[in-house]
Structure formats: structure tokens, C-alpha cells
């Protein structure tokens, strides 16, 4: 028995939801765990395509089991990749970047452009007198913490 919703097969819906969860994790809300749920949803889509399950309750069980599986397999490697023994960004420290998009405000995350890449940043907590830095302003990278550039005004 094959089900569909809004003209799409259930396997397509699971694959689409998985892809959307991955995009949300990578582009919008990193570190929240949507990566594992996205991989779980993609797994359900693959199992449906293979024809191993059909029932909605079985799909949900596979989703939660697959999400747990991917979490167990990838949690430690991803955690050490993000934290790293060293940041792996030592060549950036001391370099300059350009504030990108919106002004960066103290206590809030912002974005800078460094070597053609747009990266998340925040003010150096020991920098004094900073309230905001306008776009297109040069800043100095004083450190990198978990993939986020630590900056101060030049």
C-alpha cells in the first residue's frame, strides 16, 4: 500500500524534511541537533524507498531510532571537530576582516568577511568602549572560539 500527501510520496516528504532540517542546522541554527534529526528523516525516506516499512507508526519508530543512531555515531566526532585540539584557525588571529551585512553590537553575534568567506563573529570580551561597529569597517581578529571569530575594532 502506497500513501501520498499533497501529491508527493511519503518517501519524498521524508527526504525533503530531512534536507530542510540539514539546511536549518547548517545555515540558520547551528548546534541545535537538527543535523541528527535530518539524517534520521533521510533514513526513513531511504527505508520507505527500499520498501521495508509502510505503516506510519513504523516510520516514526524508524525516525527516532535512526536519529538516535546518527547521534550516537556522530556526536563525539563532531564535538571534537568543532572544539578541536587547537582551533585550526591560528593563521587568522591578528588578521583583519570587514564587518558584513548589519552593524555588530556588543553582546550580539555578527558577521564579517575574511578572505572572501563570511563568518560569524562577536566582540572580544576584554575590548573596552565598543558599542557597535558599522558595516564595511575593518576589525582585527583576536581569536577563534568554536568556529566564531573574536574581534575588536581596528
Descriptive report:
The chain is α+β, with helices and mostly antiparallel strands and 154 residues long. 42% of the residues lie in helices and 25% in strands. Strands 3-5-6-9-8 form a 5-stranded mixed β-barrel. A two-stranded antiparallel ribbon has the order 1-2. The chain has a two-stranded antiparallel sheet with strand order 4-7. Strand 5 (110-114) and strand 6 (117-123) form a beta hairpin. Helix 1 (10-28) packs antiparallel against helix 2 (34-50) and helix 2 (34-50) packs across helix 3 (56-83). The model has no long low-confidence stretch (mean pLDDT 84).
Map the helices and strands.
Elements: E1 4-5, E2 8-9, H1 10-28, H2 34-50, H3 56-83, E3 96-99, E4 104-105, E5 110-114, E6 117-123, E7 132-133, E8 138-145, E9 148-153
Parallel strand pairs: 6-9
Antiparallel strand pairs: 1-2, 3-5, 3-8, 4-7, 5-6, 8-9
Helix pairs in contact: 1-2, 2-3
Strands of the biggest beta sheet: in what spatial order? 3-5-6-9-8
Radius of gyration: 21 Å
Question: What portion of the residues fall into strands of 2 or more residues?
Answer: 15-25%
According to DSSP, the number of beta strands is: 9
Approximate helicity band? 40-55%
User: What would you call the structural class?
Assistant: alpha+beta
Q: Whole-Å distance between the termini?
A: 65 Å
Provide the domain count.
2
Question: What profile does the largest beta sheet have?
Answer: 5 strands, mixed, barrel
Shape: elongated
Rounded average pLDDT: 84
Uncertain runs = none
Discrete helix count: 3
Provide a short characterization of the protein structure.
This protein has 154 residues and is of the alpha+beta class. The chain is built from three helices and nine strands.
